[in-house]
Amino acid sequence: MVTLHNMKFGLDRLLKKVLVVSFFCIFSLVVILVILRYVFNSTLVGGNELITLLFVYTTMIGAAVSIGQRDHISVTVLIDKLPISFKLIVDVLVLALVALLNAAMVWYSLTVWVPITGRFIMPALQLPQVYAQLSVPIGCSLAVLYCLLSILDVVDGFTQKNTVS
């Protein structure tokens, strides 16, 4: 399981670096666009679309990372009152349901949504919308991967606790 932890750690580091670069690009573009607009009465064609595109990818990747860090929203009032073995079962079930939901989003977006609407062109950047829409299957695939890694982590922690006792 050391390899599992190393893989999850490496994925976390890589995706967080991507998020930092993306946020920096968004910030820089906003500053440049504001200066161009209010100082030089000009703009960068496609700048706002590029910011939106970066923001969408940042959101989808950030959501996957938060699932991997177990920072997603949860209400644990009832679960906290359960015995530890039931808590672990519920934890695995929740992660499996989140993985199933994200896998369904990957399947639907790749088989229905993107093929139908992905060929339309973004007005300013003149790129197909598929570049923006691929953020959904990419982010959801990362979420599925994080869920599976977390399930393995929970199962490994449970088996280690039972072998030590």
Rg over CA atoms: 20 Å
Please report the total strand number as a whole number.
0
- Number of domain units: 1
Helical region count? 5
Termini separation: 19 Å
Structural class: mainly alpha
H-E string: HHHHH
* Poorly predicted ranges: none
Amount of beta strand: under 5%
Helical content, roughly? over 70%
Largest sheet: none
Assembly classification? single chain
The shape is elongated
Average pLDDT level:
89
Describe, in plain words, how this protein is organized in 3D.
The chain has 165 residues and is an all-alpha fold. It has 5 helices and no strands. The chain has one domain. It is 78% helix and 0% strand. α1 packs antiparallel against α2 (47-68), α2 (47-68) runs parallel beside α5 and α3 (84-117) packs antiparallel against α5.
List keywords for this structure.
5 helices; elongated; mainly alpha; 165 residues
